[in-house]
Design goal:
single chain; 282 residues; alpha/beta; six-stranded mixed beta sheet; 10 helices; 20% strand; globular; binds 2'-monophosphoadenosine-5'-diphosphate
């Protein structure tokens, strides 16, 4: 088998978990492929994408939106999310003299979210979802919720950003005031609470986006933060008896979906998870 070259581009990129995670897959499946972490400055993005030295790329902060301008095709879900996190280069080996590859943009974050719930036998159909945060991570999760017919309530410290995102993504969410939400004595009718903010992320591990007193045992808690593995939100929720899902699962499942797109393989989810956990603070 010919070795293929993959990688992740971002700026900065030093702390990316994608490299060890994908290398673990190639090792586990005995594949000759490689995966690099590449620091690409915003001003170098276009040239890098057009020089297409790779078979596939993951794309992370700050390039997920900007990169769309430099691709030959963008898949529907990435269009809906308005961001690309995976590029597949298609080469036409049968016409070697005209081997200008096509760069195709995908977004695997929504599938990553969906599969991390599916793994826990959670179906989003007609569920009431409360999403906290209206930044980059929020977009894919909101589209995943919409595409799975969940009812979405969206809240964000800066309310206007939630209003704008609701319009941009056309998700028909109900917008509620964050300050009011966390000072009230109860939440609106909610099945699943999703934190997409950075609250609770290392080193601010003593913070949670939602007071413990608002959590009920029937809530499912998804925290997109995975560093630390057990955020304050996850710990509070576990203490109450809620089902909890860590952002590690979304990280692993978005990576797995990239591998399906690039190579058509079924990735070893557990080996990927084990590798990522080695690099995280507990
Ligand atoms: P990302 O791309 O990781 O989502 P981001 O775009 O900077 O990062 O978004 C961070 C999210 O966390 C935003 O929703 C932000 O709220 P604002 O829109 O009001 O900035 C939210 N956030 C970060 N720190 C917060 C805090 N201390 N309290 C409430 N929300 C916070």
């Amino acid at each position: 088998m010919n070795p293929k070259k993959f990688g992740v581009i971002g700026h900065p990129i030093a702390h990316s978990l994608s490299k060890p995670m994908h290398e673990a897959v190639f090792k586990e499946l005995n594949l000759p492929h490689t995966y690099d972490a590449i620091d690409v400055k915003p001003e170098d993005l276009k040239d890098f994408i057009k020089s297409n030295p790779y078979d596939g790329l993951n794309v992370t902060i700050p390039h997920k939106v900007e990169v769309m301008k430099h691709l030959d095709e963008i898949k529907n879900e990435a269009k809906q999310i308005q961001a690309v996190n995976t590029i597949k280069y298609i080469r036409h080996h049968d016409t070697p003299n005209t081997d200008t590859p096509k760069a195709i943009g995908h977004n695997t974050d929504a599938t990553g979210f969906q599969n991390s719930l599916k793994e826990e036998n959670i179906n989003l159909e007609n569920k009431n979802a409360l999403v906290i945060g209206a930044g980059g991570v929020s977009r894919a999760i909101l589209i995943s919720l919409k595409n799975n017919n969940a009812n979405i309530t969206l809240t964000n410290r800066t309310k206007q950003k939630a209003i704008n995102l609701n319009q941009q993504l056309n998700i028909n969410a109900k917008i509620i005031d964050y300050e009011q939400l966390i000072t009230n004595n109860q939440l609106p009718e909610t099945d699943i609470i999703v934190n997409t903010t950075s609250i609770g992320m290392h080193p601010n591990t003593e913070h949670s986006p939602i007071p413990k007193k608002l959590l009920k045992p029937n809530h499912i808690i998804f925290d997109a933060v995975y560093n630390p593995l057990k955020t304050k939100l996850i710990k509070d929720a576990e203490a109450i008896g809620c089902k909890t899902i860590s952002g590690v699962n979304m990280l692993v499942h978005q990576g797995a979906e990239s591998l399906r797109i690039w190579l058509g393989i079924e990735p070893p989810i557990q080996a990927m998870k084990d590798e990522v956990l080695k690099h995280l603070i507990n």
